[in-house]
Design the sequence.
């Protein structure tokens, strides 16, 4: 395939390779996309540059297009699947295999997504970049249950484990995985949008290192071994605020909390009786996301995590033409069920104030309509 002659529908200012790849990916054309990536490698593009400076930003744009309601969930999934296959094709390119085969040998590392995390593309990028840098990589993929991860660590003895998570609600599971890996004496490097743009949540969870992207992860590991993990300790030692049982209450009672909020919304917004089954399902999923983010914010004791998710939800609903004012009612109903837990009521009150402040900016205000958002929305800082 010849080098693209010029922009082909990409964002303004993108190079021809990126523009052509964007057209192929958004069309769901796996063959065209892999041909473009292969041609770029044939003409001398560095494979790390192709993966991290072309494919990764393109995937981030897919997420932005979904958030702006310019791409459906199905289109987002299709584009992501094509990108994953393109990365696989890049990894198998003769030039890439030669480079990985001649790189200085650095040891063995396991790369995995934490249990419940199905955004595997960031972890795949980390795995392929580490292979280029000379590591023997065990790429375990998405949604790796912690017991299976630990079994793999015992069997293979990697120098480190790299754990990826894009969705903040997976952070309690990430904490369990980090602690379990460290109990084997294996240091853990974490990355992904779930940990915050500056890695603040990685430090809270006791990870041995954090990296904002695949290149930074490879650079950190190249500088030398990660520090020896701390002695085995209890989760409560990292997060003493969990002693108030607010997190335990919200997670244990999550089904009841969701039912209460849904029942209250239906009672106070009779128009929901006219909803289709799909609309009702999406409304239930929206409420489920709210409860999940509340639980995660309680686990970390980070009120801003919940507040940012709620204000992000205002923007998402507004982009989809759904008046987001009923978020206030949903928060009121949730507040009613956690009155005995001051940290929980405090988080909800802060989020309520932030949502109320945000509503005038949407130009819609509180219309009395009920949540009708998109269940695929992972929240701020996530990577589709």
Sequence:
């Amino acid at each position: 395939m010849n080098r693209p002659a010029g922009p082909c529908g990409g964002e303004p200012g993108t190079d021809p390779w990126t523009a052509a790849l964007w057209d192929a990916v958004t069309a769901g054309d796996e063959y065209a996309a892999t041909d473009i990536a292969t041609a770029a490698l044939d003409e001398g593009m560095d494979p790390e540059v192709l993966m991290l400076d072309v494919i990764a930003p393109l995937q981030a744009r897919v997420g932005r297009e979904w958030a702006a309601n310019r791409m459906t969930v199905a289109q987002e999934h299709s584009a992501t699947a094509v990108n994953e296959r393109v990365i696989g094709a890049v990894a198998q390119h003769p030039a890439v295999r030669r480079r990985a085969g001649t790189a200085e040998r650095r040891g063995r590392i396991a790369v995995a997504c934490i249990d419940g995390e199905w955004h595997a593309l960031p972890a795949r990028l980390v795995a392929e970049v580490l292979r280029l840098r000379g590591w023997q990589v065990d790429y375990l993929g998405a949604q790796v249950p912690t017991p299976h991860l630990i079994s793999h660590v015992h069997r293979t003895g990697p120098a480190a484990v790299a754990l990826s998570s894009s969705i903040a609600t997976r952070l309690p599971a990430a904490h369990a995985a980090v602690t379990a890996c460290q109990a084997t004496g294996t240091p853990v490097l974490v990355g992904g949008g779930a940990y915050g743009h500056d890695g603040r949540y990685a430090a809270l969870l006791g990870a041995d290192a954090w990296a904002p992207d695949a290149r930074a992860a490879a650079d950190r590991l190249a500088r030398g071994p990660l520090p020896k993990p701390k002695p085995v300790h209890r989760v409560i030692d990292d997060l003493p605020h969990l002693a108030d049982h607010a997190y335990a209450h919200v997670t244990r009672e999550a089904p009841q909390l969701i039912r209460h909020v849904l029942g209250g919304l239906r009672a106070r917004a009779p128009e929901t009786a006219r909803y289709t089954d799909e609309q009702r399902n999406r409304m239930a999923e929206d409420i489920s996301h709210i409860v999940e983010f509340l639980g995660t914010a309680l686990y970390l004791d980070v009120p801003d995590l919940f507040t940012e998710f709620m204000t992000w939800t205002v923007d998402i609903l507004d982009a989809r033409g759904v008046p987001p004012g009923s978020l206030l009612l949903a928060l009121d109903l949730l507040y009613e069920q956690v009155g005995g837990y001051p940290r929980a009521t405090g988080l909800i009150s802060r989020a309520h104030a932030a949502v109320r402040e945000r509503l005038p900016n949407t130009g819609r205000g509180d219309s009395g309509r009920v949540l009708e958002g998109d269940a695929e929305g992972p929240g701020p800082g996530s990577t589709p």
Notes: The two ends are 29 Å apart (CA to CA). The chain has three domains: 1-102, 103-238, 242-362.
